[in-house]
Amino acid sequence: MTELAPPTRSRVLAALRAQRIETASWAFGNSGTRFKVFAQEGVPRDPYEKIADAATVHRFTGVAPTVALHIPWDKLDDYAALAAYAKERGIGLGAINTNVFQDDDYRLGSVTNPDPRIRAKALAHMFECVDIMDATGSRDLKLWFADGTNYPGQDSIRARQDRLADALAATYERLGPAQRMLLEYKLFEPAFYTTDVPDWGTAYAHCLALGDRAQVVIDTGHHAPGTNIEFIVAVLIRAGKLGAFDFNSRFYADDDLMVGAADPFQLFRIMCEIVSADVLKPEAGIAFMLDQCHNIEPKIQAVIRSVMNVQEATAKALLVDTAALAAAQRDGDVLEANEVLMDAYHTDVRPLLRDLRGEMGLDPDPIAAYKRSGYYETVKAERVGGEAAGWGA
Amino acid sequence: MTELAPPTRSRVLAALRAQRIETASWAFGNSGTRFKVFAQEGVPRDPYEKIADAATVHRFTGVAPTVALHIPWDKLDDYAALAAYAKERGIGLGAINTNVFQDDDYRLGSVTNPDPRIRAKALAHMFECVDIMDATGSRDLKLWFADGTNYPGQDSIRARQDRLADALAATYERLGPAQRMLLEYKLFEPAFYTTDVPDWGTAYAHCLALGDRAQVVIDTGHHAPGTNIEFIVAVLIRAGKLGAFDFNSRFYADDDLMVGAADPFQLFRIMCEIVSADVLKPEAGIAFMLDQCHNIEPKIQAVIRSVMNVQEATAKALLVDTAALAAAQRDGDVLEANEVLMDAYHTDVRPLLRDLRGEMGLDPDPIAAYKRSGYYETVKAERVGGEAAGWGA
Amino acid sequence: MTELAPPTRSRVLAALRAQRIETASWAFGNSGTRFKVFAQEGVPRDPYEKIADAATVHRFTGVAPTVALHIPWDKLDDYAALAAYAKERGIGLGAINTNVFQDDDYRLGSVTNPDPRIRAKALAHMFECVDIMDATGSRDLKLWFADGTNYPGQDSIRARQDRLADALAATYERLGPAQRMLLEYKLFEPAFYTTDVPDWGTAYAHCLALGDRAQVVIDTGHHAPGTNIEFIVAVLIRAGKLGAFDFNSRFYADDDLMVGAADPFQLFRIMCEIVSADVLKPEAGIAFMLDQCHNIEPKIQAVIRSVMNVQEATAKALLVDTAALAAAQRDGDVLEANEVLMDAYHTDVRPLLRDLRGEMGLDPDPIAAYKRSGYYETVKAERVGGEAAGWGA
Amino acid sequence: MTELAPPTRSRVLAALRAQRIETASWAFGNSGTRFKVFAQEGVPRDPYEKIADAATVHRFTGVAPTVALHIPWDKLDDYAALAAYAKERGIGLGAINTNVFQDDDYRLGSVTNPDPRIRAKALAHMFECVDIMDATGSRDLKLWFADGTNYPGQDSIRARQDRLADALAATYERLGPAQRMLLEYKLFEPAFYTTDVPDWGTAYAHCLALGDRAQVVIDTGHHAPGTNIEFIVAVLIRAGKLGAFDFNSRFYADDDLMVGAADPFQLFRIMCEIVSADVLKPEAGIAFMLDQCHNIEPKIQAVIRSVMNVQEATAKALLVDTAALAAAQRDGDVLEANEVLMDAYHTDVRPLLRDLRGEMGLDPDPIAAYKRSGYYETVKAERVGGEAAGWGA
């Protein structure tokens, strides 16, 4: 990288220092595919141990100060105690994620199930999650519905939309004035014919109907092949309806690989939209979350790497020469405009991030520092016996 | 097919008799890919000859009484004369399609071009098309924008949305109270990185901002792989925002093959949503249009076949036992619900449609009747010399 | 359907009577997605009960006389006893499917694992399966490898091909002269970056290197979006390398829905290639197998329906007027050729199949007969306690 | 970039200096989509002017010393004169590309057409191209067939394979001992149902049947969504059947954008396979060609940028620490192996390439040097009148 002008460097470093990335408790537990969950050693056995792992990620990266919970995987009697434990470890509790897809009752759907008893059960779970938010002080209720159908004719698409709208309205109503609803969409899986919230348009339409505190979540792995995600980012920002990201990456479907691993250029383009709209800063209200499955790689290290990948993409986005870009765009100079963007992308920002970490009192190389810390060896030795956390518990 | 109960048969036949499918003037001209436009014999050389072909389709099918025009491909001095000619031939003029993609000025976009001069030019064309609607008595202004970018950085996604919104608002304002704006979306092509209206969500958001007379057009070939089109149909009907279809079919991208040729089961599922929402009838305001390219097959015959394919899918959709379906759905009987749908789909409705045509005073076999009519031989002999119509003229 | 000419009818009925479809033992056990396996009642708890279910499918359809086993899910001490039990129930044991993806050792691959110890373990399993084939009298060893990588750089693509070739050669060597190796390919899942046998080309190249008794398996759900499966069918038949189908259907990825449920027209086109190459008959050596997951629908009934769907597609393919088709193709009459094909597809063949079943001494309506039989109520009552079969056991 | 060890630096620079990238004559002419070809100024009007443009690309990049021709777009009476002109300008003539898709006769195919007269005509064109190779001294005959069908039933898939095999065999037979046949595959377009050479497996099978001098061409834009191209690269290299690349990039279908513009990480992964198999050097026999359409951007500058993009991806691939990578792969250290690869990818190689150009006596910044050269202004002034070259001429 050619030397940055001091004001640019200050601006970029300040933005990177203020950046916030939320980790997910379930990323530290075991995960897999329908074919196999490969067990790893040292995996947490309860929410407290997940918090400890998330705090470790923050300790080495400095920009991951909150961790999202998933109910019932992180269900406890005393959330205040968990919050206190997290605080002690240097982090806070983030979004509350509902789960209305792992009960035999939800075979044909949760809030869109044709059976009103099951819809009521799902709604009660969502209310319970709002109660938990009250206890944890979480701002965001994140809703992802596995609801859908597998066969043409199985259920009425429209009737399911009506049921969905009803459940969302009741839940929205239940939120406190400082709480938000974040609605996630996904093209398919586990439903294989229709999915009740399959695309951003559907999520957007429901959020519009609900009100200002309902916003859309973009999971970067939840789109049809060929979808331009940064376009959706731009359009949702323009509409004031982008609430959060679930970051991960994919080559095929919802692969849930480490963010930035499959298409780092796409991640950069997404962050360019964020930076150019000036909504990177936490007060802009967009939550940047990781939602990944580390099926075959060590989990804590993978989360650290993921945080770093987001930082690198962000740093590159911050380096875009916006004046030169705007001029080239205005002039219709296609190659020059592209070149301005690529110039930032091709820059090696790792030295800058090492400097940032130094200024923040962190080791410039989080992975190496984590490995040297012996944390993994410790938990591997300690976390023996009991049941390793996973998607089922 | 087992015998239909007389009331069912009457209901189905009445619905099929009332069905209206709009053909497209450009389907009768030459078309092709970027690699080659294969010239065919007997192709019309002006809008009058296109009208004659469209009237021929209606003459043999009885359900295609209007033809859409495309400006400037169908540009004329006297649209009243063209309308009179159409009337004489037994059909009417349908939607007016704008074209802001075939002038060198539109290299970087039309209404979203960074250059205000070019945006103004594009807007003037849209106003001109509203003037033509006034002359033809057309209800619908159909807008498809090729606008987009080919390279990351080439232009600002958000700025282009703002420019698009401005142009749509000005055009909407210009419409008379009985006129509608139909906004079409398309994933890609000719733009290869971003497209300014790439999906139903974007079209929907713009239409919402405009008002009641702005509605979305679903072109069945304009989606990402794996997109569930009937879901979009259902959601847009529920929102009161489905204005029209551009029917065609595809295996890969925007292949523009004859509707029903690639996936007849999908077409049936789409028509099931239409029938179940009771919006098949013309007064429901949804226009069912064909938008196809008959690159290698004879054009008039292909359009007749396409109309028949839509009729067959519709007939099957009308045969669905809605009470049995609703019961199976309510009971969560996945296989029974699917079976009820498939029972209608597997029914051979061609005898029923032959009966319908007999009752309508038509030949039961439109293709055979068209071939026997000698129409093609006549136009092949007459349409010699001059320039065959195509996308350029 | 217009009356078939008696010779046509005889030919079609004879072909349908001779048709053989192999069911899969695992289809009767519980299955699901990574999100949830919904438990069903009456699910078999051991291979014997699976055999009983498979025999029930054959009892009502008459064309499913064998069932494939999966090792270790169907592992037993005494396969001869199992074979005898099957015979008693009226069916036989079919292909043996290996499983080298569900041991923690296989986290980074089985036969392509960088660790030679694990490769040897995987190979030993494949040898064991050949031993089982000797015991069951099975002709076919079906190999599907989950092997691949999740991250760029994780392993050498070429080195893995070399390891794969070695394992295949050793296994092929181990086969008896009347035994075959069937090699399956799959685009992705569970591997998310590279898969070691991702496409038919790779499977074909390995089978070519092995010899005549190595052939390719086409799983209809294992392709990239837009892949023309019937093309692959035609090309592999032409090369003498099509060994088997794993039938199922999908809208998105490897959804494993009932065959014919997502795109019945595609299934028909596939069967047209089979029929036109005259390789439907069992002596042509192509095994027609079902490989599906009935996650939310009742399993036995779903398998019966799947068998019927294959029969219906086959019946339609048998009805194609081959002389008319060949003539239209030769004349370059695109629409006529398409029409000849569609004429067969649009025919309602269910009456013909009902007649076939009558002639075979079966109930014309297998689903209704199965429901009336009380089989499901009986097994639901009997199969209480124990552990329901699934992918893990 | 941290300082490279001198031996590494020497090795990398030597490889980059030896790299050869072939440009395409048609990239300098006008191109577009079926919707519009936007005319640009200064476009060549004959093969000589195209050569001049290609020579200009080589003058500023130093690694593009040959240009491929396309017949009949570059048809001439005297190819020796053209070759002499090229030589004078510092470049040579490369591969000869056939065109059997732009004659009305080829509406239903060329070498696979059901009509033997048309097949003979297509074959004669291929023979003519071999004659041209003899005149130009070209080594490679590059074959891409637009052949396929648009509608199910239109023609026999197998019969077309037979006809294709015949035409390939006759053409292969016609080649001299120092000449090669390069067979390209493409998923779809302009055919929309079947394509006769749709995937690498089909091309590979035909090349195998032909002999050693028949090899496969990978066009990076010709795959189904989700296809792992570097896997195909690795497999074809392993089989000794990779003959050439047609480089370009795409977000959707065959977008033909500048290589490296859509997914630079993918291009890097492809080059990693090339480098790791040591087949970058020209004597390895793989031709690295550009095949792109510069529809909206200035063409010469776009080709220069494309050459640079390939150089940058290559430089990064050359920087991979192969020992560290092999060790991490052997140890099954997923994250470390990925990290080793990403370390090379994240390196900013532009300073290294500037150094390379300096050592080669070139301007370190080819784009700036080209702009300063006034070449474009000159040709814009000179190339007035006449007919601009395009796909039609």
- Largest interface pair: A-B, 63 and 65 residues
CATH 2nd-level architecture of chain A: Alpha-Beta Barrel
Largest sheet of chain A: 8 strands, parallel
Rg of chain A, rounded, reads 21 Å
Identify low-pLDDT runs of chain A.
none
Number of helices of chain A: 14
Tally of distinct domains of chain A: 1
Total strand count of chain A, please? 10
Euclidean distance between termini CA atoms of chain A: 47 Å
Helix content of chain A: 40-55%
Strand-pairing-aware structural class of chain A: alpha/beta
Mean pLDDT of chain A: 97
In the CATH hierarchy, what is the class of chain A? Answer: Alpha Beta
Protein name (chains A, B, C, D): L-rhamnose isomerase
Organism (chains A, B, C, D): Asanoa siamensis
Keywords (chains A, B, C, D): Cytoplasm, Isomerase, Manganese, Metal-binding, Rhamnose metabolism
GO molecular function (chains A, B, C, D): isomerase activity
Overall description:
- In chain A, strand 2, helix 3 and strand 3 form a beta-alpha-beta unit.
- Chain A is globular, with a radius of gyration of 21 Å.
- Chain A is 46% helix and 11% strand.
- Chain A is α/β, with parallel strands linked by helices.
- The first copy, chain A, has a single domain, classed as Divalent-metal-dependent TIM barrel enzymes (TIM Barrel, Alpha-Beta Barrel).
- Chain A has 14 helices and ten strands.
- In chain A, the strands form two sheets. The first copy, chain A, has an eight-stranded parallel beta sheet. In chain A, strands 5-7 form a two-stranded antiparallel ribbon.
- In chain A, helix 1 runs antiparallel to helix 9.
- The model of chain A has no long low-confidence stretch (mean pLDDT 97).
- Chains in contact: A-B, A-C, A-D, B-C, B-D, C-D.
- The interface between A and D is medium-sized, with 27 and 27 residues.
- Chains A, B, C, D: This is L-rhamnose isomerase.
- Chains A, B, C, D: One of its GO terms (molecular function) is isomerase activity.
- Chains A, B, C, D: InterPro entries: L-rhamnose_isomerase (IPR050337), Rhamnose_iso-rel (IPR013457), Rhamnose_isomerase (IPR009308), Xyl_isomerase-like_sf (IPR036237).
- Chains A, B, C, D: Keywords: Cytoplasm, Isomerase, Manganese, Metal-binding, Rhamnose metabolism.
